[in-house]
Amino acid sequence: MAAASAPTPSSTAEIAEAPEPLPSKLDNSEPDCPRKTRPGLKRLALTFTVLFSFLLGLPFLLKSVEIYRSPLPFREIDDLSAAVESIPLQFPCKFRAVFVGIGGSSFDANELSVKIEHQMREIAAKDSTSCGACTYNSSVCVVVENGADCFRSDNDFNWKCGALSELNKYEDSGEYNDELFDEYLHSLVDESDSRGNGNNVYTMIVVRREGQKDVSAVVGKYRHGWIVGRVSEEEAVKKVASVFVKVFVNGGKEEGSISGEFMPVGADGKIVLSFNLLNADPHDWTYDWEFQEIDDNLLAPILEYLKPLADISVESQVLYHTPKSSFSYWDETLGSYIFTTKDLPFFVEGRAILQYVPSSTECPLQLQLPNGKISKSNGFISPMWGSVVVWNHAACLNGSKMETRVRHMISSEDMRKIFEVFIGQLRQLFGLKSKGIFRDASGTMRLLTSESGFTEWELDVLSRQHTCFNLLQCTTTLGSLSRLVQSLPRMIIKEEIGEQVRYSLEAAKLALSNVSAGIYDASAVSSRRARSFAEDAFYHPSMMSVSYYSFEHCFAVYSPFFLPVALHVLLAALREWKRYKQESRKFKAWKSKKD
Amino acid sequence: MATSFKFKPLTISILLLFLYNAIASSASGSSSTTMHTNNWAILVCTSRFWFNYRHMANTLSLYRTVKRLGIPDERIILMLADDMACNARNKYPAQVFNNENHLLNLYGDNVEVDYRGYEVTVENFLRILTGRHERAVPRSKRLLSDEGSHILLYMTGHGGDEFLKFQDSEELQSHDLADAVKQMKEKRRFKELLIMVDTCQAATLFSQLQSPGVLAIGSSKKGENSYSHHLDSDVGVSVVDRFTFYTLAFFESLNMYDNASLSSLFTSYNPNTLMSTAYYRTDLYQRRLEEVPVTNFFGSVMETIHTDSPYRAFSNRYYRKSKTEMPSDQSGGGNRRALKDLDILEELADPKLNVRPLQSTYLLVHEG
């Protein structure tokens, strides 16, 4: 028996891994090798301590690989979007009108007020809702003067009755001039403002004079305009309403709403104007200009005036060899070289505001418009890029010879004319017209020009439009940013980005409150800030999709370190636990047998 | 008989209802009302080393074409490893050819490379697309497009299934490209985008795109290779790829005033000569290809508006000494077309001046 069983232990001894006696492995309940002592806890304690220390360390590990994401105020961004995008942003504006020589009772004043409002709403309804328009909710204050009588529809308007009775004498004396009358009216309108908030009030003055055949309609440099002449009540109401809506609110443009291409202001609220003088061929002649003088005298005041809209900085340069890349042809009847509007896109490579002096082979060079006429200004703009003026100097027109190799200075007179075209082009780049006339169904109006380049009411129009545009851009940018951040839950969001978003939201709220208060320039400034912060946050260079850690990446990096060790620790703990259970069962069995 | 007649109006009205719904839904998905104002081109060559000569030649040929058709350098972003022209193995130093007849030196004067050498990385490429540059990056290296821009994106190099290899060290995945395009669309950095890819299995690179307004064409489908056109035995390497070669052949016959359409370009690729199938996807693009001229992407557009008159406000200021200035109240001559200033009073009297509506070709002039 023993011999028969002897080979088996030896063969099994080969495959058995431990040199332990076999009975304890094969059969637990066999009392061949009973356990007389209670199994110890040391091994168990050891393995479990290691396991627990691993488990304790796990939260620290997860914390160390946590992605830092600055908390963004998503709810507030959504609220802002709802506030700005749902309804077109509109500003409170106040309108006033004075009628001299039309109507004669307080009933007339109220009636005129109602008629004007009605007409304004009609005109405004035809125009599609543009960004930055006025709400037409407040009533129009009307004063009616007839001889010695004076009636008001609203007591807020402190117009000095009888102030215009001198007008006849003044006009007949021959000293009348639109600009002087404008100044006079400005002083009157200023005085009449009882509440002192002259910022968003527009006034129209209608003087009916039987003796005058033609009607002169002029819009001044400030915030008022006038119509003088033989004009009936109906016509006067129509004209006044159309001036209010089309000129004071919409800026005198004949088209509808402003589109983004007339917003030359960059995302950070700055514009760089670069003035370049290009000489086509230095062999023929070279010109230079005294830009510093122009900058000091003319340009700086204009740019100062535009400060609420944008921070404008100016640079200038003179280039001495810039040939044109398109061709022009010689026209005998006009006596000059012609380039047409079709050649314009290939004119010159470059940007900003250019003044081009053509070479002798192409002098004089004139621009022909599609209707066959020759351009008076010889210039054109390209929105979002800049403008070009072609200047043919006097010697070229005379055909006289010029000294080469000498730098000729452009005369101050020519500089002034060129500069006027530049300013006209700058106005066009902002979306206003360079011409001083406004034409529509009710007639023609003359728009006075201002030495600051832009009149006060034009600046109001631009402020409103820029505010609206900036706020819309700001909310879309913040919305895109919040969608982006939420769609990439493992992308790092730096603290800086969170700060910029918060500043942007603050500035946007300030802008909205300024809008409802009707302060145009402050709202333009704060909307600009809001937009620039939002753009900075969105375009922060750290938010690149290639540089965030996906979960797979994290797993792939850390698992080779921890997974094998963790596996062994876990298995060891399990094995010890199993062994402990076995041993204690054996001990219990022996104990029960003993008893 | 009577019942069938009764059914007819019912079916007709149901059909009309469906038609109306179809029209309404397609109208809601139509493109925005912004105007096309400028064109940009991003030309990327993702290979380096001498044996990838043809990729650099591809990119430079397209650069030359796009410049000839009018896009200025400031609106072209050219990314090249730029190690061919002055390579020690180049028998013709400082010259790069795309044809064995050596008639055209692509690397002549007037080549402006924006990202060269080791700057051509996936990160920089994605930064260009999304616009997230470091503060110090100069303007010439940025894509300064806006919502009226049409962008041409051309990429060439070695590619595979859903990826494109960059400089033999990293890869651009198709989902990264799709993600970048999605962000561009959100931020309205383009109106329309044309992606041309000349690599092996090119069509897989744009398979994940989902943004509207994107048109894409690749030189080969999934599982196919793209081949080079011919070997220049003098230079010693292949000098141009087939897809680019036939694209250039199409454009060589064009000048800046032509208006061949995109569909004629896309259908000009013959699978037999290409030795692969040029695959394009138009499902994200709203316009019909027959109506889109190639110069919408490959040429230049500059919307121009004429300046009516100077802004006369400075006659009293500025130089007190000049006595020759014309006071603005006096009217100038009648209809003389000389270069004298005509002033506002004369304009008021002229009945022929009227407001012209905007002419809507891609050259827009407003005159009034």
From TrEMBL, chain A:
Bilayer-spanning residue ranges: 44-62, 555-574
InterPro entries: PtdIno-glycan_biosynth_class_S
Biased composition (Low complexity): 1-13
Domain of life, per lineage: Eukaryota
Compartments in which it is found: Endoplasmic reticulum membrane
Keywords linked to the UniProt accession: Endoplasmic reticulum, Glycoprotein, GPI-anchor biosynthesis, Membrane, Transmembrane, Transmembrane helix
Entry's Gene Ontology BP terms: attachment of GPI anchor to protein; GPI anchor biosynthetic process
Membrane topology, record value: Multi-pass membrane protein
Pfam families membership: PIG-S
Keyword Endoplasmic reticulum: yes
Chain spans, region Disordered: 1-35
GO cellular component, one term: GPI-anchor transamidase complex
Pathway: Glycolipid biosynthesis; glycosylphosphatidylinositol-anchor biosynthesis
Protein family (similarity comment): Belongs to the PIGS family.
Name of the protein this chain belongs to: Phosphatidylinositol glycan, class S
Organism field: Salvia splendens
TrEMBL record, chain B:
Key word Metal-binding present: no
Keyword terms: GPI-anchor biosynthesis, Signal
Secretion signal, residue range per the UniProt entry: 1-24
Pathway listed: Glycolipid biosynthesis; glycosylphosphatidylinositol-anchor biosynthesis
GO process annotations (BP): attachment of GPI anchor to protein; GPI anchor biosynthetic process; proteolysis
Catalytic residues (positions): 158, 200 (nucleophile)
GO molecular function, one term: GPI-anchor transamidase activity
GO cellular component: GPI-anchor transamidase complex
Pfam families, alphabetized: Peptidase_C13 (PF01650)
Family: Belongs to the peptidase C13 family.
PANTHER family recorded: GPI-ANCHOR TRANSAMIDASE
Protein name: Phosphatidylinositol glycan, class K
Organism: Salvia splendens (Scarlet sage)
